């Protein structure tokens, strides 16, 4: 039985998942929130992006279940001896990938889907020194003659992977049609409605996104059974494995940093807009001074002080993973506590308008306390700004982590992140021949994560912002809810 390890960011991530589930439960019980989120659910790009984000979240959560494997008992150990655990901490994702080519390092660089090393070395062949590209330890090791067998073996594994992905696509489609058949009048009618896009929710777009994910995953799994799909880096580690491990770091940076900036932003923003006067002046002075300091320099100073504390207290960490995780957690807190001024300004401006409305003035006239007015009347009416800012800040923080790691003040060097991959590719692009696959892999994964987060955030902003354009139902939905179509004369007017 392994020994489970609970890191700071693991606890924070699972608490965040529990909070999201609780919010979903509350939203289902609230007609207003249910109607607002229904607008988001009818947006095809947003829901397709949600499918991609869900895939990233699943990978990140699997990488957040940490444990120390139990080692076999030492020779001659007593029967009742306590179990011995490995010093290295692993995750559930590591356990799933254990034994594959992804976890078997090479000596140094190798190209994607290669069977030989990228650089030449001197080898002894038949007692004679010969300078050639040596065979890889794991990638293509099953081939007897890579020059003639590589292409056929790659195509065969790719075909098997695509076939497995196609089976997953068909199974997902059958499950979707089976679930929806109760509401759409049978399997045949449901299949026709989903295929033609006549459903209220964009199930066709979501299923097509799911199909693309399954086919890509199947192809990668099929190729990864014998090759390094995206090559290896300078130390011989698989680039695809590093990209998968970097997803958790990006999710932690984007989510925990956003949550860390909410308390000061909401508290100071509501207080400044409601009380005005000296309270407003003091809060404005604080965040004006904070924004006057260059952000990178402020984060660098805080990160260096944090690193000094970690280095002077090595007894607080039993493993290197705990040390790296604490640095990541404190980095999220630093970014959150130094980046709340933008949201604070928005909430202050909105609160200045809300405090002059009739229901707030009536509550003050009846002697309701200031705390109760801010909690019951002001906070619910600014939550759309908070929610919009949260989803918009996520993608920006993922990119910001890449910048910080590139400057050397980001996550621990032993922790995988997209910024570390980009920083490692800084000198690789100037090589001759150029090592391009490390940077390209980080770019593809970051593009998919940030683009899907931005598309989903745009739909949330449009649904929750009262100043955004109102939702107009499509033709099929108009027929479903009985909205009469406009005549040609009315349309012309």
TrEMBL record:
It comes from the Bacteria. Gene3D superfamilies: MetI-like. One of its GO terms (biological process) is transmembrane transport. Keywords: Cell membrane, Membrane, Peptide transport, Protein transport, Transmembrane, Transmembrane helix, Transport. The keyword Transmembrane helix applies. Its main location: membrane. It is found in: Cell membrane. It is a multi-pass membrane protein. InterPro entries: BP-dependent_transpt_permease, MetI-like, MetI-like_sf. It holds the Pfam family BPD_transp_1. The chain crosses the membrane at residues 6-25, 46-67, 158-180, 207-230, 250-273, 285-306, 326-347, 382-409, 435-457. The keyword Membrane applies. One of its GO terms (cellular component) is plasma membrane. Residues 247-457 form the ABC transmembrane type-1 domain. Belongs to the binding-protein-dependent transport system permease family. This is Peptide ABC transporter permease. It comes from Bordetella genomosp. 4.
């Amino acid at each position: 039985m392994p020994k489970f390890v609970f890191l700071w960011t693991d606890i924070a991530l699972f608490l965040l998942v529990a909070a999201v589930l609780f919010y979903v439960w509350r939203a289902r019980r609230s007609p207003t929130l249910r109607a607002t989120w229904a607008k988001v659910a009818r947006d095809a790009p947003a829901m397709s992006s949600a499918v991609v984000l869900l895939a990233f979240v699943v990978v990140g959560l699997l990488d957040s279940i940490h444990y120390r494997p139990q080692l076999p008992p030492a020779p001659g150990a007593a029967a009742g001896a306590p179990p011995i655990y490995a010093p290295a901490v692993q995750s559930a994702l590591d356990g799933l990938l254990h034994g594959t080519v992804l976890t078997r390092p090479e000596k140094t660089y190798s190209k994607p889907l290669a069977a030989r090393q990228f650089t030449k070395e001197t080898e002894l062949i038949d007692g004679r020194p010969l300078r050639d590209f040596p065979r890889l330890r794991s990638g293509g090791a099953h081939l007897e003659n890579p020059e003639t067998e590589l292409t056929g073996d790659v195509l065969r594994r790719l075909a098997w992977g695509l076939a497995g992905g196609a089976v997953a696509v068909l199974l997902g489609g059958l499950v979707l049609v089976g679930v929806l058949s109760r509401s759409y009048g049978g399997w045949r009618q449901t299949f026709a409605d989903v295929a033609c896009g006549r459903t209220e929710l964009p199930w066709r777009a979501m299923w097509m996104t799911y199909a693309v994910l399954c086919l890509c995953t199947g192809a990668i799994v099929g190729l990864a059974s014998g090759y390094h799909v995206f090559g290896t880096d300078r130390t011989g580690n698989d680039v695809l494995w590093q990209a998968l491990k970097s997803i958790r770091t990006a999710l932690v940076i984007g989510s925990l940093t956003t949550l860390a900036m909410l308390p000061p932003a909401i508290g100071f923003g509501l207080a400044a807009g409601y009380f005005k006067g000296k309270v407003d002046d003091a809060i404005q002075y604080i965040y004006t001074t904070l924004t006057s300091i260059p952000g990178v320099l402020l984060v660098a100073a805080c990160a260096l002080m944090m690193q000094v504390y970690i280095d002077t207290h090595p007894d607080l960490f039993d493993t290197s993973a705990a040390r790296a995780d604490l640095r990541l957690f404190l980095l999220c807190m630093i970014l959150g506590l130094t980046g709340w001024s933008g949201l604070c300004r928005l909430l202050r401006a909105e609160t200045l308008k809300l405090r002059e409305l009739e229901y707030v003035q009536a509550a003050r006239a009846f002697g309701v306390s200031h705390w109760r007015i801010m909690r019951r009347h002001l906070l619910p009416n600014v939550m759309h700004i908070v929610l919009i800012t949260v989803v918009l800040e996520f993608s920006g923080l993922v990119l910001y982590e890449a910048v910080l790691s590139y400057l050397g003040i980001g996550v621990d060097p032993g922790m995988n992140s997209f910024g570390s991959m980009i920083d490692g590719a800084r000198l690789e692009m100037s090589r001759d021949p150029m090592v391009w696959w490390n940077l390209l892999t980080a770019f593809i994964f970051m593009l998919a994560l940030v683009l899907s987060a931005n598309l989903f955030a745009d739909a949330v902003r449009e649904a929750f912002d009262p100043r955004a354009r109102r939702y107009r139902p499509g033709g099929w939905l108009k027929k479903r809810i009985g909205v009469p179509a406009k005549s040609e004369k009315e349309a012309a007017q």
